[in-house]
Request: fold
Amino acid sequence: MSNQDDITPSNEAELADQSLGHSPEELGNQRYSAAGEVTLIKARRTFLENVWRGLKSAPPTALFGLTVITIYIFFALFAPLLAPHGEAEIFDLSYAPWGEEYMFGTDQLGRDILSRLIYGARNTVGIAFVTTLFAFIIGGGLGITAAINNNGWLDNLLSRSVDVLMAIPSLIFALILLSMFGANTLNLIIIIAVLDSTRVYRIARAVSLNVVVMDYVEAAKLRGEKLFWILYREILPNIMPPLVAEFGLRFCFVFLTIAALSFLGVGIQPPTADWGSMVRETAGLIQFAEYDLTAAMTPMLPAAAIALLTVAVNFVVDWFLHKSSGLKD
Reply:
């Protein structure tokens, strides 16, 4: 008889376990989780290999979006090295025309427009990213917790509180709160993060409700696993695709909200460079279009920077949603 005849179903399971590099004794001491299963399957594929495989299959719109985002991040990280002048450095000539000395001219105080555009990438994009991250920590954590306690007193309390906050227009509410507590960067981050976390809470709770009823979550509860372990190992890996896509969309909304508040004068405060406030400060140059077209284009520069990043992020989010859904072109 061949060796294949000696393989029983139990031996097949043992051989399969050992082929993954784990002995039966090791597997007996481990707890099963969805995240662990995915990790075993993709153990031999490095992070760079996954990135390269994804980029090769990305459509042109996604590649364009990734390129724009990379450029913005580069300017944000190396702004002091790339900017020809200081962020708040003032020169004698106000509203200087475009030229060799000042590529995009100067503003009403004599500050170099190009330098403030570069520093604006660090301030506007950086603050928007931190605010969105806080919104997801607050809203995502509360949303998943509410889903686990579905229809309990905590779920009802959180859901009704979120409904009340969402009933008030976010921009108007942020204007009122910033006027009350003061328009500084810390208050701006906290207020927008709390207001935007209500949207994150709704989607986190909705997608988590579809996961908490699964058998592997119930099995983890019966094993006596703690709440944090269930959240981190069982629920979070299965809701990441919609949350990552929502992060991109929320970033766009937060980014535009900060720019709008800065345009209204209650966002990022001078002398810190911000694209929204730059549009407000140079908006008066539009009326001189018939005399100097380049001067009239000056307020369009920060506006174009805002629009370009918004479009780029949306391109990447659309690609990620399509990729994570498993649909084929």
Summary: Confidence is low (pLDDT under 50) at residues 1-5, 7-21. The longest helix spans residues 227-264.
